Amino acid sequence: MLVHLISFLSANDLWNISLTCKRIWNIVDVFKFWELLFEQSCPRIYYAMQFNSRWSNPTSYQSKMILCYIDKLPKEYYKTFDKSDENGQIKKIIGVMKNNLHNPTILRETCYILKRLSYRQRKEDEHESLIARYDGIGLILCAMKNHPYDAGVQEDACGALGNLTCDSPNNLGLYSNDNYLTVVEMGGIGLILHAMKNHLMNPGVQYNTSFVLRNLARNDVSESRVAQEGGIQSIATAMRNHPNHIGIQTQGCGALRNLGCNDSNKILSAKEGGIGLILRAMRAFASHPDLQLNGCGALRNLARNEDNKNMISRQNGIQLVLAAMSNHPDDPDVQDEGCAALINLAYQDEANEETIAREGGITLILKAMRNHPYHSGVQMQGRGALKNLSCNPKNKLTIARSGGIELMNIAMQNHPNFANRFLELMRILQVALEDNPVNNLF
Fold first, then answer.
1. How many Å is the Cα radius of gyration of the chain?
2. What is the rounded CA–CA span in Å between residue 199 and residue 195?
3. Strand residues in 159-260 grouped as ranges (E)
4. Beta strand ranges found along 148-300 (DSSP E)
5. Helices (runs of H) and strands (runs of E) counted in the chain
6. How far apart (Å, rounded) are the C-alpha atoms in residues 222 and 189?
7. For residues 177 and 167, is the Cβ–Cβ distance under 8 A?
8. In whole angstroms, what is the distance from residue 262 CA to residue 301 CA?
9. Would the pLDDT of 278 be above 50?
10. Checking CA distances to 215, which of 36, 128, 327, 392 falls within 20 to 30 Å?
11. Which residues touch 33 (CB under 8 Å, ≥6 apart)?
12. What is the pTM of this model?
C-alpha cells in the first residue's frame, strides 16, 4: 500500500517525505521512484542525464534537485510551449536556469542538459533551435558572466554553446541556424576567452572553449572578432599547455583552420607559433583521422601565405600531409584536405613540386582519386594538386604515365558539372605523352 501511494507523489513531496523517514527513503530508492518519475515526466532530459558521470544513477542528488526545481516552476511553464517541445521539457530546463542564475550548481547541471540535448543525434531533432528560441543562449552566457571562476559552469556552458553552434553548411553553403551569430552579437567571444584565461590548466574548459571558437569562426567578421580579442593566442596557449590531450589538439587545429581563412589571421597564427603547434599535433597523433583532417585543413589555409608556405616546408609539413594521406587512405575527408593542402604548397613553388613528387605525393594523390571516385572533393582537390605539380615537366610525365589520363576521364563521367576542368588537365597530360613517347625496344 505504501509503495502504491508513494508512486503518485510529486518530486517535492517525494523529497520532503523521504527526509522524514529512513525507511521511506530506502523504499523510494529501492523501487526506483526517482528514475520512474524522471523518465515519465522528462524523458528527453532523462536520456541526456545518462551521459553525465556526476549523474551516475537516477537517484543522485543532482537528478533529485533538478526534478524538484522543475516542480517549483510557475504554471506558465506547463501551459504554453513550442509544439515541437514535447511536454515543454526544454522550456522547463530553461525556466530552472532563469530562476537560479546565482546558483552555480544548478547552472552547471542545466548547461550540461542543454549540451546533451543540442547534440543532434537524429536528423528530425531540432533542440538547438528550440533552445535558441527560448533565449537559452543568453542564459548560458549569463551563467558564464555570473560565475567566471567556476570551472564546472564554464566547461559545461561552453560545451552547450559548442553544440548549439555546431552546424554544417548544405550544398549551397547555407547553415540551418544562425546561433553562432547570436553568440557573437551577445558578447560571447569575450566570455569564452575569459574562461580560457581563467582556467588555463583545466582540460575540460580548454577543450570546450576551443570547440566554440572553432564554430564561431565561420565568416570574415567573426573570424576577425575572434582574432582581435586574442583568440588565436588563447588557442595556441591551450595547445601548448595540453600537448597530450587529443581533444584539445584536434579542436585547436580546427579553430586555426577556420580562422586561417582570413588573410590577417594567417599572419597572426604563424606569429603565435600556430604552424609549429599544428605540425607537432600531427606528429603526435598520426593515427587519429579527425586531427589529421583538421591539421591538413589548417595547413591548407595557412599555406596561402607565401611566408607560411615556406615555414611549413622547412618544418617538414609536406611530409606530414603525405603521411596523413598514407595512414588514412579510406577516409575521404582526410584525402580531400590532404590534396587541398598540396595544391597550395605546390602553387608556383618549384622546390615544393619536386619535394612532393620525391616523397611519393603523386602516387598518393592518384591513389586517393582511385579509391574515392564519387567524392567530388577528393576528385577536384586531387585534380588541382596534380595540375600544380604538372608545372614540373618531369612530374607531368610521371602523372600521365601513372594513370592520370584515365583518372581524369573517369572523373569527367562521375562529375559532369566539373568536366571542363578534368578535360583541361587530361589534354595537358596527353600532350606530355605525345611529346615523350616511350621508346619501343622491340
1. 27
2. 6
3. none
4. none
5. 30, 0
6. 9
7. yes
8. 9
9. yes
10. 327
11. 6, 7, 9, 14, 27
12. 0.89
C-alpha cell at 127: 533542440
**Placement of cell 524523458 in the chain:** 43
DSSP label at residue 290: H
Residues 6+ apart with CB under 8 A from 169: 175
Residues 386-401 pLDDT 10s = 999 999 999 999 999 9
Instruction: Find out whether 383 and 411 touch, Cβ atoms under 8 Å.
Output: yes
Note whether 197 and 238 are within 8 A (CB). no
CB 367 within 8 A of CB 321: no
Closest CA to 366 of 393, 326, 312, 327: 326
Q: What is the pLDDT of residues 283-318, one digit of tens each?
A: 999 999 999 999 999 999 999 999 999 999 999 999
- Confidence check: pLDDT of 3 > 50: no
pLDDT, tens digit, for every residue of 66-80? 777 777 888 777 777
Domains, in order of start, for the chain:
316-436 (1.25.10.10)
Residue pair 396/382 in contact (Cβ under 8 Å)? The answer is no
Residue in the block written with cell 580548454: 206
Among 51-55, 232-236, 386-390, the minimum mean pLDDT is found in: 51-55
DSSP secondary structure string, 23-39?
HHHHHHHHTTHHHHHHH
Give Cα 440 distance to the centre of its chain: 55
Per-residue pLDDT, averaged over 130-138, amounts to 94
Across the range 97-125, mean pLDDT stands at 84
Give helix 231-241 / helix 274-284 axis angle, nearest 10°: 30
Largest Cα span, the chain: 102
d(CA 213, CA 222): 9
